[in-house]
Amino acid sequence: MTKRTTTIKKMTTDRDYYCRNKFTFLKIDVEQKSTYNCHAAAPHVIDIKWLQKNPGNLFNTDINVNERKLMLENKRNSSCEQNCYRAEDVGAVGPRILEGGPVRTHLDPIATPEIIDINLTSECNLACSYCTRVFSTAWRRDLVQHGDYVNLDSTGYNAPSYKLTSIDKITSRLSQSEKKHSKHTDLILNEFALLSTDVKKIIITGGEPFLNNFLFELLDLVKHVNEIKIFTGLGLSCGRFHDVINKLQNYPNVLVCVSAENLGDLYEFNRNGARWNDTCFMLDQLKKSTISTMIHSTLSCLTIHGFPEFLNQYSDWTREIDVVHVPTFMPMNVVDDESKEKIIHDLHKHEFKNKDHIISSLKIDPTEQQRQHLKSFLQQFSVRRSLNLNIFPKSFLKWLDIHVVQ
């Protein structure tokens, strides 16, 4: 593969920095007591005292309004750096571009949310390769058991994934009921109820929503909304799965969005804790049910391997694609040239939305620091979970200078 060069753009107004998501999307993480003014943005901690005095204004906090003002002035803001601006600087595609964010829809920094994403709890049996302790109790338990990851950049964009905090240690000891029935949680849920009155869509994420004991209580709260989208990694027992989907069939406005990108061993590696055979069974049951379903694929340098084969097997499913830029060594272009050539060749055989953007991003050369940090992460991730790295292409492991026993 011919070597490519990338030019990093300076932080100037030489391109459009506007994104309509900032004016329409609110994510509320109840457990972490934080909000995101776009699903790809960095979180902001909720000022509980301010919220008590300003009910109904969680979407129009001072920081959210100021960030929208910056966008209207065509200036960068810090919460968009991690997943969008930084990726675009090197010619990669981020969520802003994939979702048509630059299309201007608002002129006023005071806005009303059209989509609310709510995360009640991080309860999750899976430790997905690109996930974090913030969104998975399985990730958190691993850090409690084995300690923090080492030899990785522990600051900036990588910090949330690999270092246990004092708050994590407290949260890990609380039950779902204890988390839900706290004073601050009640305040945040009341705010959610206020804001959800006129929204177009509610998104329920986690953690694993199907493990949430209060899922149907939440669904009843927002049953007036036209579309309710539930993200699931299907990391639960078949028995609980049957109970959940039987109840979900009474909610015709629900869309189940299954997170998956790979088949077999690659699937079980990247969605560690799940069993591929169980997932196949659950996907088949969802397909046979009356529930609307789709697939959400998150592409990283680890999940991109085998993704074309996944497209082959599940070609008849509606799908959407997201891309990883945090941590900084996880974007899908952090792959050896030989693997890239094969992946790009195989992707050309398929038609899917934003295919050209995906292929263009794949072609960007990774940095040496990205390669080294990925090597360190992959070795630690696999050892902690007794995973076999032989499932990845030999050229990829050779490029990372990782030697495994055959």
What does this structure look like?
The chain is of the alpha/beta class and 406 residues long. It has a single domain (103-400), classed as TIM Barrel, CATH 3.20.20. It is 40% helix and 12% strand. It has a nine-stranded mixed sheet with strand order 3-2-1-4-6-7-8-10-11. It has a two-stranded antiparallel sheet with strand order 5-9. Helix 12 (238-248) links the parallel strand 7 and strand 8 (254-259). The chain starts with 20 loop residues before the first helix and ends in a 6-residue tail after the last helix. Residues 1-13 have low confidence and may be disordered.
Radius of gyration of CA atoms, rounded to a whole number: 21 Å
Number of helices: 19
CATH architecture call: Alpha-Beta Barrel
Number of strands: 11
Overall shape = globular
CATH topology tier name: TIM Barrel
Number of domains: 1
Brief characterization of the structure:
This protein has 406 residues and is α/β, with parallel strands linked by helices.
Short descriptors:
single chain, 406 residues, alpha/beta, TIM Barrel, nine-stranded mixed sheet, 19 helices, 11 strands, 12% strand, disordered N terminus
Would you spell out the secondary-structure blueprint of this structure?
Elements: H1 21-24, E1 25-29, E2 34-36, E3 44-45, H2 48-53, H3 62-72, H4 81-89, H5 95-98, E4 115-119, E5 127-128, H6 137-146, H7 159-162, H8 166-171, H9 176-180, H10 183-195, E6 201-205, H11 215-221, E7 227-232, H12 238-248, E8 254-259, H13 264-270, E9 271-272, H14 276-288, E10 292-299, H15 307-313, E11 319-323, H16 337-347, H17 355-362, H18 368-385, H19 394-400
